[in-house]
Amino acid sequence: MPSLSPWFVALLGIAALSSVFASPTRTIPRTPPPTSPFATASGGGLVINGSKFSFIGTNAYWLPYLNSDDDISKTLADMSASGITVVRTWAFNDVTEIPEAGSWLQLIANGTTTINTGPNGLQRLDKIIELAAEHNIYVLFSLTNNWNPVANEPPTPVRRHNETPLPRNFLSNDYGGMDAYVREFTETKTHDEFYTNQSVRKFFEQYLQAVISRFADNPRLLAWELANDPRCSSSLVSSPSCTTQTITQWHSDIAKFVLSIDPNHLVTSGNQGFFCPDCPKLFFNPSPPPNPVASPVPGGTRKRSTRGLMGPSKLFQMITKERRAASRASAPRNGIKIRGRWTASSEAKRQAGGIGSAFDGSFGVDSQDILSIPEIGFGSFQLFPDQNSYGTIPTQFTPPSSDFTGTVQQGTAWIQAQAASALAVGKPVALTGFGLVTQDNFPAFVPFNATFPVATSPNQKRQSTGSFGTGVTDDQRLSAYATWLQAGIQAGLSGMTQYQWSQQNLQPAAGTFVQSPNGPGTLGTSPNDGYGILGTGESGIQQTLQTASQNIT
Ligand SMILES: *[C@@H]1O[C@H](CO)[C@@H](O)[C@H](O)[C@H]1NC(C)=O
Ligand SMILES: *[C@@H]1O[C@H](CO)[C@@H](O)[C@H](O)[C@H]1NC(C)=O
Ligand SMILES: *[C@@H]1O[C@H](CO)[C@@H](O)[C@H](O)[C@H]1NC(C)=O
Ligand SMILES: *[C@@H]1O[C@H](CO)[C@@H](O)[C@H](O)[C@H]1NC(C)=O
Asked: Would you indicate the residue range of the signal peptide (predicted)?
């Protein structure tokens, strides 16, 4: 079982120290907080209407694309009843041909793009914002996706749509995204051309212009998330030249572009939160800290202050030191080695040996450098232990079902490390997606880069018995979520969004993902990719979210 590494323990110590060092007078804001109805960042927290805004949220990438507005409204009402105040969803739905039925937002084909502004196009997004306002829920729109595997595309051995029982838009990776642009507009077809190629940039910015200008004045939008899980590689491989700086520079450029259209809303990344203390930085300023005199947010009970804290430079020196010590002290374990399984193609991108893949830059993500970009308003990170390893040392990947206690501890440490990292930069941070696959859900579990459940895919059979384990029990999932929510609240996260919401009794409709389980005429359920909450555990999860929503305020 992986144990907590020393540097996490050290980080915990620092987190504790921060309240010791915070002087009592800091509970009084130095400057009056903004009373804007738009979310702003102040003193390490989010502020709306002049009050601190901390949230428990949920993910429903599919929500705008339901056929029935009543179903959307009902879903939002149920979320609200569980204490949810933020829903994160996809503000993109790219297609390569116009579907016969159902919604789509942008056609990417024949060397150009066409944006659908009709009722089954961008007006879906208008609708979700309008209905969210009725239910007092804020919307976090993500603008594109790292993941979009398509049929027969080497090296991705997948099938899709008509060849699988999963309908269009069922999976989160079936809404187009970065690779849809790369396939259409580049010759090399390497994933990172999305970040660097000027033709791709031009078309993506046209899309951003259309979407962002639509909501620039609407306070129901919490923030713009630039991309879900941006990385150097995807189902399309990375070029050898992609580094963390490639991804960071893209964030800077696009965040500036977004703010040039919409100065009202905050911009966040959407990355997984991977660290790379050893990577060269573009924005991270070791000393002095960017916001050394952050004032506490109004109404806040916790004290987040950078005063008395180690500066970012010292913090990360310490991380590096502890990490190396931990690495030296730990011998390799037996088992299937799948370290770096999500990594970019180039071995050279690993910045140093002996570090866990969430800490060595191998995904091309340096979350602290990204968070240091002036135009990035708050940090975001994710926690999916069935798909990523969050250990600081490169042991083999251990599925949550094989080491539940270790998984929970590592998740807690990950949350605390993200909070400490954001504190060092002086900005808020939110966990924008977290989830665990249960035994009941395991047959439905499709990793974000795949189109088939691991349990049934011939190509993934080997992994389903090895790296993916068997799923945890409902009780374990509940206890992990409760632990992580509590850890996030204590660490001072601004929000946590569970992945993903489930909804029953939805109207099945042609061209949508809502399938009727019992034949035509019956009612359907929302997509389950292994993280849905229907079943025996549902009420427990909803209760836990609600409890957390009461505690986070
Ligand atoms: C902020 O004020 C607006 C307008 O009164 C209201 O609709 C909204 O719910 C408020 N938001 C919060 C988080 O209080
Ligand atoms: C692309 O162009 C071809 C040739 O003009 C046309 O047949 C096809 O329908 C176009 N595809 C889309 C998706 O518009
Ligand atoms: C972008 O991709 C296109 C198509 O592959 C290529 O012609 C062009 O040179 C690329 N532009 C840059 C700046 O790499
Ligand atoms: C998804 O990622 C896993 C881990 O890297 C890999 O083993 C698997 O082949 C990938 N699946 C697809 C369909 O690309």
From this structure: 1-22
| Residues in the chain, total | 553
Pocket test for ligand 4, best of 388, 449, 452 (most atoms within 8 A of CB): 449
Task: Determine the atom of ligand 4 nearest the C-alpha atom of 452.
Answer: 13
Q: Terminus-to-terminus CA distance in the chain, angstroms?
A: 35
By C-alpha distance, which of 119, 105, 237, 100 is closest to 176?
Answer: 105
- Do 255 and 282 form a contact (C-beta atoms < 8 A)? no
State pLDDT tens for residues 465-521: 458 999 999 999 999 999 999 999 999 999 999 999 999 999 999 889 887 666 666
From the CA of 155, the nearest ligand is 4
**Does the Cβ of 99 fall within 6 Å of ligand 2?**
no
Residues of the chain with pLDDT under 50: 1-30, 287-312, 326-353, 460-465
Q: Which ligand is nearest to the CA of 80?
A: 1
Euclidean distance between CA atoms 453 and 245, whole angstroms: 34
Taking CA atoms only, the protein residue closest to ligand 3 atom 10 is 197
CA dist., res. 323 & res. 134, Å (int): 48
For 59, phi then psi, to 5°, come to -105, 135
What does the pLDDT look like over 531-552, one tens digit per residue?
Answer: 999 998 999 999 999 999 999 9
Domains and their CATH numbers in the chain = 6-22+53-286+312-325+344-552 (3.20.20.80)
